[in-house]
Structures are given as C-alpha cells and as structure tokens.
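User: I'm writing a tutorial on reading structure tokens. Could you give me a worked example: one chain, its sequence, then its tokens, then a sentence or two explaining what the tokens reveal?
Assistant: Sure. Here is the example chain.
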Amino acid sequence: MNKQHQNLQLQKWVAAISVLLLIVKFIAYYLTNSVAILTDALESIVNVAAGFIGLYSLYVSARPRDINHPYGHGKAEFISAAVEGTLITSAGAIIIYKAVRSFITPVELQQLDYGIYLVAATAVINYVIGFITVTKGKKNNSLALIASGKHLQTDSYSTFGIIAGLLLILFMDYKHKWIDPVVAVIFGSIIIYTGYRILRRSIAGIMDEADVELLKKIVDVLNKNRRENWIDLHNLRVIKYGSVLHVDCHLTVPWYLNVKEAHDEVDALSTLVRRVFGESVELFVHVDGCLPFSCKVCNKQNCNVRKHNFEKRIDWTLENVLRDKKHEI
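And here are its predicted structure tokens:
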C-alpha cells in the first residue's frame, strides 16, 4: 500500500471516530448545561466536518497524475488544510461568543460528575488518535493528516483544561459558576490561534513557499555524502505536492564524462535522496559540465585535464546551492 492510500485509510478512521466523540460530547452537554462542555461539543462539529473534508482531499490527492494535472493532485491537501483552519478559527470565535453570553445570562449547572467522565474519555481518545495521525502525516509528508492530527490533539488539550475548570466548580459545590465561561473564553482563544497556524501553513504550501528546514536537511545529507565527481550543486528547489516532494537541481560533474557515466552520478544522487526522504520523491537533475574555474574547488584525483590546482573544497550550504551559479573561488 503506497503512502497516499495509507493516509486515506487513516483519515477514514479519524472521520468515523470524530462522529462518535461528537455524540458523546453533546450527551455530556445535555446532562450538565455547561457552556464549557458546549464549547468542546462545538469544536467537535468542526472535527467531523474537517475529518470528512480531509478524507475527500486525501482521496483526490491519491489519484494518479493526468493530462490536466501533470504533477498529480497533491495540492488538494493544502486546500483541505486551509478549509480546516478556517473552520477551527470560526469555532473558536463562536465559543467565545457563547461564553460571553453565559456571563450575561448564567445557566444552571447540573450532574457535572457524569459530564466530566464522558468528556475525559473523549479527550484521551482524541489525543491518542491525534498523535498517531500527526506521526503518520510527518512520515508520509501529508499536510492534511498533520492538520487533522494537530486539531485532534488541540481538542484534547482544551478538553483537559475544561475538565480542570469543571472539577474546580464541582469541588466548590457549584459556588463559582463563573469559572465555566472563563474556561470557555481561554480555550476558545487557543483554538483560534491553532486555526491561524494551520491556515498560515496551508497558504504557504499553496504559494509554494520554501520549506527552509527541509531544504537545510537535504543540503546537509548531500554535503555529507558527496562523491568525487560531484563538483558542485546549485539551483536547488523543492516543491511539495501533498505527500510528494518535487526536487530540481543542477549537478556539476567533470565535462569529459560520457552520457552513461554522468547518468550514473545522477542515479547515485537520486538513490541517496530517496533512501533518506522516502520513495515519494520526484528528482529532476540537470547535469552541467565543469568549467576551468571549477578546478580550484574540485578535489578529483588523477584528472588529466586539470587547468588549475585544487585550492579548497566549498561546503554546500543553503546559500550557495540555491543560487543559479556554479561554485567558484
């Protein structure tokens, strides 16, 4: 099973479990009349909507490339994450609105102990599913899974905070009911911030914003495993299409290598990148022949056409591999 289908199967479980937890939370709200628990239930509506949106986006992104989408359908994951971020932010705003209203018109709380048991169970389940989803999303480079998992984990954090506030009310024998809407406001604000972060990341993906950390890791791996014929690497670019990484670069090799020898160097580079970053990597390497000034940074032994003595090796860094220029002293 490839990564796209693994992501799709996991998202199906996330969507199904979100529906069950939503029902449990509304039962808890019905028993208690707690606006804090209503806060949790409203966020779970977003969980369900986002779960099915994420499911559809993963279905689309798993489709093979076609004439109209030569790079595949992976960008659908970024759109899904943007929608999910918008829903999360909206839910946070609604939660704060409900909490402010409860300050003005207090409600009678009841049976908090039963409500606490129910929402505590949902918090534990949400965290476990969220952790599994984020881990798999990072492994498979799936923004949709990462967004879903982080949403579930954030939901569990807010639920634990809500439980703490409800326990305080319970221990004080319902004397400080104002704690209930205060807790709702605090976690509504946290939810809004989480939605903003997901939105920010999804827009960056849609706009093909450079992932600096990923680029640094790629450069570090290539620099540490350089071969003698890899004189320099430049014009490196990485674009994400869902779980697929599209990597472009120019590799400078000795000008006198024949086609097969140059292709062997490209194969070695491709094998290295896929070994570290997985098989979902599309690597397009343009081979450049070295020029006389390249001799000063080339430490190839037994070169019979050298024009200058070797002076020093230039380590590959993010700055010099991103430039569209061969390395020279």
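What the tokens reveal: Strands lie at 232-241, 244-253, 281-289. The longest helix spans residues 3-32.
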